[in-house]
Amino acid sequence: EKLYQTYGIACHQGDGKGDGSRFPPLAGTRWVTGNKARLISAVIHGLSGEIDVEGQKYNGVMPAHGFLTDEQVAQVLTFIRQSFGNQAQSVSREEVLDVRTKGPW
Which of 24, 6, 30 is nearest to 61 (CA)? Predict the structure, then answer.
């Protein structure tokens, strides 16, 4: 939770619902609860260009957070996958390492 408060809350808000225009929600979305590798890659490598999140288009830039350790990435992603009403599996340090060494999805 502390990592989310440090790196995610400004854009995705305290309730995980985003701001409704520039920053997508984390609550109740397949981007968060679905493909772990895609989510891990977005955090490590950043994300730019248009994406569709539950039928709404977002076209912004998420900065890379590759400076976070594998454990920190796993912790923050586990937090968001199990918060805001989400009920998804945790993310392990090993899964993060695997995505980090293979490159962006």
Answer: 24
CA–CA dist 44, 96 (Å, integer): 9
Alpha-carbon distance 33 to 28, whole Å? 8
8 A C-beta contact, residue 18 and residue 24: yes
Of 76, 104, 93, 89, the closest CA to residue 33 belongs to 89
The answer to whether the beta carbons of residues 37 and 101 sit under 8 Å apart is no
- Which residues touch 22 (CB under 8 Å, ≥6 apart)? 11, 58, 60
pLDDT in tens, 38-54: 999 999 999 999 999 99
The count of other CB atoms within 10 Å of the CB of residue 93 is 14
- The type of residue at 40 is I
Predicted TM-score (pTM) above 0.70: yes
Tally Cβ neighbours within 10 Å of residue 67.
Answer: 8
Tokens 């695997």 identify what position?
Answer: 98
